Amino acid sequence: MSDRFAVLQLDDLPVRHCSCGTTRRGFIAESEGQASVHLLQVQDAVTHHHRIATEYYVVLAGEGEIELDGVRHPARPMSAFLIKPGCRHRAIGDLTVLLVSLPAADDTDEYFDA
């Protein structure tokens, strides 16, 4: 590991459950919390939003939809979505997504409608 770069294998990271299914999160510590990269497998995603984080979704595999503020958008490989703070969102379908979060993912910045 260098102080100028970091390398990881996303599919070797531990799996953790999240509001969208399962995820493997990388580069949180290495970026000092400035960003994180996730390998997300969508499963039973729950609508939520963030007050701080901006997220970028890039669909790597599968077909489905990304719901943004109640509007569903088709999602297939190489579809990309910019999700700004306050946008209620969820992924629907059998999707594998590369997700970039700025700043890094923080479970305390996840809000659900009651």
UniProtKB/TrEMBL annotation:
SUPFAM superfamilies: RmlC-like cupins (SSF51182). Residues 45-92 form the Cupin type-2 domain. It comes from the Bacteria. InterPro entries: Cupin_2, RmlC-like_jellyroll, RmlC_Cupin_sf. CDD domains: cupin_Pac13-like. This is Cupin type-2 domain-containing protein. It comes from Micromonospora noduli.
